[in-house]
Write a structure and sequence with these properties.
With about 140 residues, the protein is mainly α. The chain has one domain (about 5-130). Helices cover about 80% and strands about 0% of the residues. It is built from six helices and no strands. It is globular. Keywords: Membrane, Transmembrane, Transmembrane helix.
Length: about 140
């Protein structure tokens, strides 16, 4: 098995862990429910997108670039939550709309996007280390 195949397999396993955890944050009822729903979900969302993109762009340079692009893209989506056209509002209040676009702007989300992107970077780096015992070049 090539190192890229091994990394992709490890990435898929990671997605099978992160994805249910992310959905769990939206249905969790218990202590710290609000924080888990809003902010732990943000962290896992960043990691999820880092893993999805890394699955398709499995190179060492991508490990650094992916979290930056995921943070940037999700920050733009967060800012766009200030824009409230009816067609977006209708979608935002569906389950998939809440999961992809969110429903309201919150400055604190940027902190958790940053944390999630950093943890995503660490996660990708660990996947690379476990899947590739060679040099750190593409």
């Amino acid at each position: 098995m090539s190192y890229k195949s091994k990394i992709r397999r490890l990435t898929l396993i990671s997605l099978l862990i992160v994805t249910p955890l992310g959905f769990f944050t939206k249905f969790y009822n218990g202590p710290a429910q609000s924080w888990i729903d809003h902010y732990a979900g943000d962290i896992l969302y960043q990691i999820f997108w880092c893993l999805i993109i890394f699955f398709f762009f499995t190179t060492y340079p991508a490990i650094k670039q992916i979290p930056i692009w995921v943070f940037t893209f999700n920050s733009i989506i967060e800012i766009l939550q200030l824009w409230k056209p009816p067609f977006l509002e209708g979608f935002r209040y569906t389950f998939w709309g809440r999961m992809t676009l969110g429903t309201h702007f919150d400055w604190q989300d940027f902190v958790y996007y940053l944390i999630g992107s950093f943890l995503g970077w660490l996660w990708l780096h660990q996947l690379w280390r476990k899947g590739n015992n060679h040099e750190k070049t593409s």
